[in-house]
Amino acid sequence: MTEVANKTDEVTCTIDGIEISVPKGTLVIRAAEQLGIQIPKFCDHPLLDPVGACRQCMVDVTDDGRGRPMPKPQASCTITCMPGMQIETGHVSAKAEKAQAGMLEFLLMNHPLDCPICDKGGECPLQNQSLSNGAAESRYDGVKRTFPKPINVSKQILLDRERCVLCARCTRFSEQISGDPFIALVERGALQQVGFYEDQPYNSYFSGNTIQICPVGALTSAKYRFRSRPFDLKSQVTTCEHCASGCELRVDQRRSEVLRRYAGDAPEVNEEWNCDKGRFGFEYGRGEDRITRPLIREGDVLRPASWPEAINAAVRGLQQAGAAGDHPYGVLTGGRLTVEDAYAYAKFARVALGTNNIDFRSRPHTPEESAFLAQAVAGTGLGTSYADLEHAATVLLVDLEPEDESPMVFLRLRKAYRKNRTRVFTLAPYASAGTRKMGGTVLPTVPGTEADVLDHLDPTEVPLDANSVVLVGERAATSPGALTAVLDLVHRTGAKLAWVPRRAGDRGAIEAGCLPNLLPGGRPVTDAAARVDVRAAWGTDALPSTPGRDGDQILAAVAAGELKALVVAGVEPADLRAPATALAALENVDFLISLETRISEVTARADVVFPVSLFEEREGTFLDWEGRERPVHPAVPTTQVMSDLRVLAALADALGTDLGIRSAAEARTELAELGVWAGARPDAPNAAPLQQVRPGPGEAILASWRELIDDSRGTDHAGELLATARPTVIRMNLDMANGLRDGSPIKVAWGEGQITLSLEIASDMVDGVVWVPRHPLSRGTEHASLGRLGAINGELVRIWTDETDPAFPAGGNEGDPR
Amino acid sequence: MTDLLTPVLSANWDIDRAWTLAVYEKNGGYRALRKALEMAPDDIVGAVKDAGLRGRGGAGFPTGVKWSFLPKDNPNPRYIVVNADESEPGTCKDMPLLMASPHTLVEGLIISSFAVNAHTSFIYVRGEVLHITRRLQQAVSEAYAKGYLGRNILGSGFDLDIIVHAGAGAYICGEETALLDSLEGRRGQPRLRPPFPAVAGVYASPTVVNNVESIASVPSIIDNGEAWFASMGTEKSKGMTIYSLSGHVANPGQFEAPMGITLRQLLEVSGGMRAGHQLKFFTPGGSSTPLLTAEHLDMPLDYEGPMAQGSILGTKALQCFDETTSVVRSTLRFVEFYKHESCGKCTPCREGTWWLVQLLARLEAGQGVEGDIEKLLDLCDNIGGRSFCALADGAVACVTSAIKHFRDEFEQGYHTPAWELFPYEKNCLFEAAPMKVGAH
Prior knowledge:
The complex is a heterodimer.
Chain A: E1 10-15, E2 18-23, H1 28-34, E3 58-63, E4 74-75, E5 86-88, H2 94-109, H3 125-133, E6 151-152, E7 157-159, H4 169-177, E8 183-186, E9 193-196, H5 208-213, E10 219-221, E11 234-239, E12 248-254, E13 257-263, H6 276-280, E14 295-298, E15 301-304, H7 307-322, E16 329-332, H8 339-352, E17 358-359, H9 367-377, H10 386-391, E18 394-398, H11 402-405, H12 407-420, E19 423-428, H13 433-437, E20 441-444, H14 450-455, E21 468-473, H15 482-493, E22 496-500, H16 506-512, E23 518-519, E24 523-524, H17 528-538, H18 551-559, E25 565-568, H19 579-588, E26 591-596, E27 608-611, E28 620-623, E29 629-632, H20 644-654, H21 664-674, E30 699-703, H22 719-722, E31 729-732, H23 734-737, E32 745-750, E33 753-761, E34 769-771, H24 786-789, E35 796-800
Parallel strand pairs in A: 1-5, 16-17, 16-25, 18-19, 18-21, 19-20, 21-22, 25-26, 26-27, 30-34, 31-33
Antiparallel strand pairs in A: 1-2, 3-4, 3-5, 6-7, 7-10, 8-9, 11-12, 12-13, 14-15, 14-27, 23-24, 28-29, 30-35, 32-33, 32-35
Chain B: H1 21-26, H2 31-38, H3 41-51, H4 63-68, E1 79-84, H5 94-100, H6 102-116, E2 120-125, H7 130-145, E3 161-166, H8 176-183, H9 197-200, E4 207-211, H10 212-224, H11 226-230, E5 240-247, E6 253-258, H12 263-270, E7 279-283, E8 292-293, H13 304-308, E9 317-322, H14 327-341, H15 347-364, H16 372-383, H17 391-412, H18 418-421, H19 424-427
Parallel strand pairs in B: 1-2, 1-4, 2-3, 5-9
Antiparallel strand pairs in B: 5-6, 7-8, 7-9
């Protein structure tokens, strides 16, 4: 849509007497819409392949461009504009108007007309178009077709077959857009209906989109069904907080309670789609664990306190800790903050605490990654974009599983594969479902050996050039040398590069300066000129000039007694590299301030807890993986809530320092005035790959990432959504399974802990590797996960089965000491 | 009068075991194939064009021209798909042909495939006719054994495989793109065109879809020459074809005659209507062609004749109804068929046939209300020409033509049940158990 068509490829035709030039191949209905001429329609959707099923969009072609009228009315959603074509819509042609009215009468004939109790009533294309294009009274006095209703096509999606007009939007979406064809039209004639296979319900990460594009009330969500009327809702356009895809959202609330979220229309980003996590995961702030007042530790308990008391306590704690040494502070911000809040932390750490000990990465990370981010990501602005993905000849994925880790990247890559024959390659141990749906080719890779694979890519097999994109995921940080090799590869080939983090706040945190080696705008802390910039903007005399400690180093320094106080934002210890060590550090640090929305493992160990606002109450900006600014607006009226920024400003005041910003708008202005670093970029990382670990008997190398719907606090209380999560399995190849079948219980151990998972054979899994979800949903009594135990991608785990099979697992190097 | 008939395709039907290869060959079978393999493929296409063979499935498109639409520069393989999904009510020409002489089709398909350079061809047989499917399979396997199929056919260097594929019982699969979807293993629903099958048919490759009778006519053209074929028939409708007589006739069956014969002639040849009765109305080519009346007895049954009378030749399935027949009742039966066979893809066909059946049912029961006829006609106007494929056009053709010719009978449906006006037992050709009327 964004390309400017070559003029020679344009055709000129006339619609309702108005001449229009459109690119060759444009559908008549699209051309009419460009002129502002509305043609009623149901099956037509600009992002789906034409089907011509509902026949609602009939127009009269009075001249087919060769001087002849077309005798029958034509469906404008399936004919393309031809030079000289004369088209009349129902607005001027009685023939077209009658065809349209007749079609609406047919569609309403078997429709239950239960609008007063239908979720769609008030925002229903069938209802609206019946009023605009239909007859006031139906002539139908016969027997209507009936079905039992509703039925569950998944735990989340309900189908009312009586209301369905069989436009096939949902089935085309599932097949074409998301590649999950678990719903299909079945039966024939008036008994045709959307059907599914009961043993394989419609569990797709994108199933909620079918509700949104359904032009009637046939598909509804278990979450929203019968909850509200559209005219009682207030809508706010904002950006999704669940990942770095940057989806525009329309959030609908009634009486300050968010009732549903729809995908916004952002052609350059999420088009008109979003994922189910973004759509249904919005109730996490409604539990008993919501923190509404400041808390102060008194012995073993946290007691409510007033804001002034809590701020005084925080200041006292920080000052006492500070007396023990030279700025013995650390700040962990997590990846869920807006740019403005992250900026407040970055500034607070430097100005109020005088330290560069700040890190947003609440996940395994390395100094190599810090250097990579400083060299190739920070301050690069809007770089590689969704459009680049769509039009790339080749896309190489490194340690990135887009369907799980950035769903809109996945949808765009699938579109690129379907529409533009983009070739997708992925460094992965096996072809995941997502990879197959992108037509992807696996470059078989043992986790940890990415650098080696990248260094030895065969350019004839994986052709990379300026029309190619290399996407690298956050997991690459767990593979020594991988990020070094990625930079080397893009410099060697000229391919575009993008780093695709998982969390919505990750990219913004980098720009805001929430890294030990970077000030805002990608300025290296070690560069005097960069510090001068920032000092001038902040009106401060001094800035720490040596790189601080990264997240892992901060926690280690706490354990070593070198750091005395921590300020922690939204961080889940289970996400960190060593959860047990992190919890111990939080437990033992002299003074811990937590800014949180809900009780967590951090707040439980904090000395002072400040409640901060929920995402739905915030103002600000996210930067998506492209580096594109995505505005965040409060979806519900806010009263007595404090953002992280407001709390930090108050704390800074009490510490005797002026943070200089009081609102997101001020932070945004200041950050914009500061701009990005134009000086020399820091050096690229130069990390060596590690020697490949080799599994011994009973061992395997772990491949693991977080699935989209898993044990995340962001999806708490979204029961129906969680019911559509993928089953928790361990995947390995046939040889390793050595005769065990799908469903066999397999024990996996790492360190002191072990978990049990159900076997699923992945025949193409690289030998010696097992895949396990990092934080699977807790089902039944199983609460541990490998992530919580601390095992990460590329590490060795022990596997065995209690089913008496001494030969399992096959392989491994007998007696090989590692 | 019998010299009006020109049995060519049906010439061997009464020979004992004509469906076997040995008997087929003994009567001149596969002679045309040997001749064709000596010819240049383009010359075969030219011969079929010059003969004036037009599609026998109903549309009447020139077969040779259709073949020449296959793009020359498409790298994909080419396919011929034979449409043997004969399902139209009244139509029964392809099934008897395949039953009696399946080798006629097989030979024709080998020649046609050679002509268009297809190396795999399909015969899509309607699913309900198991016995015919078996005969076809037997014929194909005999042809393989004899070297008429497979690699290097008769030493010509030409390779061909024929695959007999049974449908799953859906009228819509006679529509060529629905047939292709069904052949590929999908649900049979018509495809969006363009692309047309000639460009992207089965497996997105160039494909010709031809009717059984069209392909079966090819050997006779090659054997006897295009001039022989063109000497039969009328100016624009050449050759011989199979007419199927059914209904209230004395001798129902298949009658092969030159294009352009009239129904009066056919009735004379076959023995007329059943004794003591007169023709009331007939369909020229199956239930989807607008019905005609005794006025049209002398209309030439070629592609042009029925067209001039507002109908179409269709499959030359002449269902003849005598004066004991209620038009309302027969129309309802036809529309019930289309309602049952509507694939459901598009609105007017799916919903419209559902509605039409209810209106016609109450007219049959004498419970129609004033305005129902106008409503029927208006609904037909809203269905016809608006649907995705031609199925719905066929569904409304019988309604509009019936009202055109017999409006008074429909008006009687406002007050008198059809079974009182036309007692059903008088209409019945066979002794039958008392019928329960008015139940649907």
